[in-house]
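Example 9 (inverse folding). The structure is encoded as follows.
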């Protein structure tokens, strides 16, 4: 059985949600952030040099990085579900949005978090540039969701599992006003209503 090492308010929530969507049995090992520093506990460092979640154990395999874990579980345990294959018309969209989550959207919000903590003047060019990048990333998601119910098209996929974290839990660390993005707000609501998502949240 897969063991998921889950840190509260972290990207490991993606893995719990994925297993619930696929109906894959798993064991959950939960960790709490330091209430002051918000850093992960030393116990995670003992598991993997990054000292971050998610980490999974599957027999002799120990794997970190949420995107790698999602692909591993889908291919090894999920019979390819939630990942359109090359024959699908949704394949290119799936690949783009699956990798957009950690390749563009998440880094843009993390840079905004870092620069915001530097307490630069509101009109500082670095802050302006970083805000612009975050707004551009969000506007691309908004444009996609204005014409598609899910990121890869009409069908829910792992691209949605990868993306939702940045639009929900990540905002606990770097608040972003989603009022200008009605399609994103509607999408977040739809995802939060999925039974598997509700089950995952009740466990974490």
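The amino acid assigned to each position is listed next.
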């Amino acid at each position: 059985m897969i063991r998921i090492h889950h840190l509260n308010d972290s990207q490991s929530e993606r893995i719990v949600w994925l297993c619930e969507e696929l109906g894959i049995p798993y064991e959950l090992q939960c960790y709490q952030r330091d209430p002051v520093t918000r850093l992960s506990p030393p116990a995670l460092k003992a598991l993997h040099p990054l000292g971050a979640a998610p980490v999974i154990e599957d027999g002799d395999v120990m794997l970190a990085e949420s995107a790698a874990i999602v692909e591993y579980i889908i291919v090894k345990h999920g019979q390819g579900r939630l990942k359109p294959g090359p024959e699908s018309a949704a394949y290119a969209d799936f690949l783009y949005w699956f990798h957009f989550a950690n390749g563009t959207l998440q880094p843009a919000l993390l840079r905004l978090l870092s620069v915001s903590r530097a307490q630069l003047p509101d009109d500082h060019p670095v802050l302006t540039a970083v805000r612009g990048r975050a707004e551009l990333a969000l506007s691309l998601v908004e444009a996609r969701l204005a014409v598609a119910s899910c990121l890869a098209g009409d069908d829910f996929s792992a691209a949605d599992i990868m993306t939702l974290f940045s639009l929900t839990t990540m905002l606990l660390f770097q608040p972003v006003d989603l009022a200008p993005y009605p399609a994103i707000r509607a999408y977040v609501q739809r995802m939060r209503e999925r039974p598997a998502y509700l089950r995952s949240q009740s466990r974490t």
